Amino acid sequence: MFFSLRNLSKSRASTNYHYVFSLLNANGFVSSGPCSPSSFCFGPSAAFSTTSTACLIQAKDVVLSFKEWFKSRNDALFDHIFQILKTTGDDNTVLDLENSNDLSFHYHHRSSADLALAHLNLCLSETFVLEVLRYGSSGHDVLSCLKFFDWVGRQPGFNHTRATFHAIFKILSRAKLMSLMLDFLSTYSKQRYAHRVRFRDTLVMGYAVAGKPDIALQLFGKMRFQGLDLDVFAYHVLLNALVEENCFDAVQVIAKQISLRGFENEITHSVMLKCYCKQNLLDDAEKYLRKLLSDGRAVNGHAVSVLVDALCKNNKFEQAGKLVEEFQGAGVELMESVYGVWIRDLVQAGRLDGALEFLHDKRSLEGYVPDTFRYNTLICRLLREDRLEEVCDLLMEMKDGQICPDKVTMNAALCFFCKAGMVDVALELYNSKSEFGLSPNSLAYNYLINTFCGDGSVDEAYEVLKNSIKQDYFPGRKTFSILADALCREGKLDKMKELVIFALERNFMPSGSTYDKFITTLCRTKRVEDGYLIHGELNRLNKVARKSTYFNLIRGFNESSRGDIAARLLIEMQERGHSPTRNLFRDVICCLCATENPDKQFFNLLELQLCCREPSCQIYNFFIYGAGHAKRPDLARQVYETMQRSGIEPNLRSDVLMLQSYLRSERISDALNFFNDLHQRREMGRRLYSTMIVGLCKVKRVDIALDFLKEMREKGVVPSDDCYEFLIQLSCWNQGYHIAVNLINDLEKVGRHITSFTGNILLLHSLKSQELYDAWVQLRQVPNEKSDSSMLGLLIGAFSGRVRLSQDIENLEEVIEKCFPLDVYTYNLLLRSLSETNMDRACALFYKICQKGYEPNRWTYDTLVQGFLKHGRTSEARRWLEVMYRKGFHPTERTKLFI
Predict the structure, then answer these.
(1) Which of 195, 382, 489, 665 has its CA 20 to 30 A from that of 54?
(2) Which domain of life is it from (predicted)?
(3) Residue 361, Cβ neighbours under 10 Å: how many?
(4) CATH code of the domain occupying 265-362
């Protein structure tokens, strides 16, 4: 029957499970028995040791127990009434409570609700109607309350009372529907049931509750002039309204009238205490309360709670606590109301420990049991602060004490099971909600969705969302983002698309990051058209998409060879205030150049760009750069000439990009001609020469590149590191080692140092051939033995096998470091050298690489695997191969030959 608690949910093991254990163990759901330490996965906050008694719980028993408790609630009839009021009515009617002046609709509206309510055979009484209205007001369902008030007023045998009128007035007042309420009062005499109660009393109460004490007092004055008077109920409603509206002078007058007529009672005392408190005369309020007690006047807990509440609102909790204890000892009746207010104020102030301690003391000493509302207040605040153990205790107190749960209690229990990681229990209770009339609120829906997403149950989370939408709830921004992320992560893009449509239909605007992730996912999965449709909906709502969203869409259309749409988006993003990068321009232009009629589309984009922004050198440079990458130097040259015709002088960047476009397309003669033309209008500096040399090296024209280097040196221009790096690399690849060594000599003459790139190239080719060392010995003058160049020669000799070094790994690193900075590539070369002779030393170097903070790459692992295979150590090679695969790398083709 029982199974381990860790099997209660599909979700992750949670440190919250032990709270559930504490709760259910105390209520007979747990079977005791030995438990191994591995049976649970608790964090540091676990309340009990894993060596203690095991807990074995069956989830279905938990669900069944809570279902039975939920079914015991006594407001199922009220749920049915309000369900009828919500779902029946004129199909083509749209209600606007704030703006509608047609009160005949609100109070004489006929619909199928009349018939449905009549079939319930309700026993109508003042008490019952007040309970229904109170229940409806707790759910903020003002319209249904109005419908019910209208319906019962038209039923034979029932007459509205001042109490029911007062109740509906309070509902309208709290909903701030003052215009509707005043409109009702002005046409009150026309209502069929208006004269079944004390007509003028009801009007005075109505205007008083509506926040119009001046009108209420005028009506009261007219009544007195006509020899009429208010009854005790209306007097106290008027007195309380005057206090609420801070009409303190009028309060004293009405209080005196109440006293003269013998109407003074506990309600009078409570209202007068509120009057003192509203004026912040707390000491006077306390004196007034003590005098009432000393005079033997009627004082109950409601009056004391008014002062206790005021003291708490003024942060005088110590004084309020003493007052609670003092008056409890004085034998004041209905102290439960004081206890309830005291607990509520402690909770609202965040003093949860004090509230729980007080509750425990009063329960054990006096048998005090809070009502459902107070329990809910505590439970919801404890849930918010993740104090699940106390939530468990309170829920079980309610259950064992047969305290009837309401909607708030059931929603809190649902949230509790979500937070405790008991996903199966939460889902079962949610799926069975119709059995006990559970209507999840927005908080419960959010908890359910968040929990299911975290548990990997994304489909269940989405179904909960759809149900919440049917109940007119929509998740908050954070929950929406969590669900959207989960749907994108699981690749459920159709559901994600529906989710976005739901949001847009409700004018709900998720965060930019949510849309960005969705559109990015659509683009990544080759559904860029769907992403574009979502983007179009955002434009329709005048919402500006993020810069990253535009980037993802443009890249997606580039990959789909839809340069026309990519170009349109490029212009649009600038109109929306985003600045595209040079590389984004490049990609769009390359895509346009690969389509039909590329020239026309290219210049159309240029024209639109010049209309979109003020013409500048930067804009033209973007197009030259893009055309160069698309290997369309002809287009680049046209843009260059257009810029000149527009009166914009090309800058150095323009010249460099134009040169690069020729060189990238291997149009060497055009590049040389353009370079010669530049001689006529600008001084030729390092940047232009470097562009020519590097560009020529990239197209394997080292001969011309060397000529430019020579020309550069003759003009006294010092070449950049790039020039030497590319020339030395290309010379070595062409086996022109003598050229490479001469370049090293020249490098030293101009005062430049060997870079990591150049040093690694020399060591790599030393491993491949001894010719580099021969050229080095032949062309280098005999240097000082301690110079850096001498050390570099020794390294080249060592790597080529011509020089035997006695240094260990650490010393060899020091030698290299004196010649040039080490990087991962250098260490890989050292590994390769060591793996030829000693794999143990190679492994030691690998671990040292990691200790120094370098990240081994594919070549690092490949070198080790290949080395072990060469030495016949196949088992070790396999182990390193497994590590390589785990790191996400694959062996090279050469290594595969040895496997």
Answers:
(1) 382
(2) Eukaryota
(3) 11
(4) 1.25.40
What pLDDT does 878 receive?
Answer: 92
The H helix count followed by the E strand count for the chain is 51, 2
Tell me if residue 12 falls in helix, strand or coil: coil
Q: How far apart are CA 890 and CA 894, in angstroms?
A: 12
**Distance between CA atoms of residues 696 and 271, nearest Å:** 95
Residues 6 or more apart in contact with residue 25 via CB below 8 angstroms: 55
3-class SS of residue 90: coil
Q: How far apart are CA 321 and CA 327, in angstroms?
A: 10
| Residues 171-183 as b or e (16 or more Cβ within 10 Å = b) | bbbebebeebbbb
CA separation for the pair 310, 274 (Å, rounded): 8
Tell me the range of 39-53, 92-106, 290-304 where mean pLDDT is highest: 290-304
Please name which of 314, 313, 231, 227 lies closest in space to residue 267, comparing C-alpha atoms: 231
Whole-angstrom CA distances from 125 to 101, 132, 153, 193 are 30, 11, 11, 15
Rounded to 5°, angle at Cα 489 from 485 and 493: 85
DSSP output for 21-34: HHHHHTTT--B---
What amino acid is encoded at 841 in this protein? R
Q: C-alpha distances in angstroms, 181 versus 106, 385, 421, 591, 674?
A: 11, 40, 47, 66, 85
> Which one-letter amino acid corresponds to residue 614?
E
| Residue 56: predicted pLDDT | 35
Q: How far is the C-alpha of 279 from the C-alpha of 276, rounded, in Å? A: 5
> Vertex 456, ends 452 and 457: CA angle to 5°?
50
For the structural domain made of 825-899, what CATH number should be given?
Answer: 1.25.40.10
SS3 420: coil
DSSP bridge pairs for 4? 56
Q: Residue 866 and residue 604: Cα distance in Å, rounded?
A: 55
From the CB of residue 470, how many other CB atoms can be counted at a distance below 10 Å? 7
Measured distance CA(458)–CA(704) in Å, rounded: 63
Identical topology for domains 265-362 and 825-899: yes
What six digits make up the tokens of 83?
Answer: 């369900």
By the 10 Å C-beta count (0-12 exposed, 13-18 middle, 19+ buried), 152 is classed as: buried
Tell me which of 9-13, 79-83, 243-247, 287-291 is least confident. Answer: 9-13
Residues in Cβ contact with 153 at an 8 Å cutoff, skipping those fewer than 6 apart? 107, 160, 191, 192, 193
Q: Tell me the C-alpha distance between 633 and 639, whole Å.
A: 10
Angle (CA) 215-216-220 rounded to 5° is 115
The alpha carbon dihedral of 883, 888, 893, 896 has a sign of positive
For 42-69, the pLDDT digits (tens) are 222 333 233 233 333 567 888 888 888 8
The helix/strand/coil state of 820 is: coil
Phi–psi pair at 890, nearest 5 degrees: -125, 145
pLDDT given at position 354: 92
Q: Which residue, among 468, 373, 394, 425, has the nearest Cα to 134 in the 3D structure?
A: 373
- Annotated domain spans of the chain: 3-59, 74-90+97-197, 213-264, 265-362, 511-578, 581-674, 683-822, 825-899
Helix/strand/coil percent split, the chain, to 5: 70, 0, 30
Q: Are 363 and 393 in contact (CB under 8 A)?
A: no
* Per-residue pLDDT tens digits for 698-734: 999 999 999 999 999 999 999 999 999 999 999 999 9
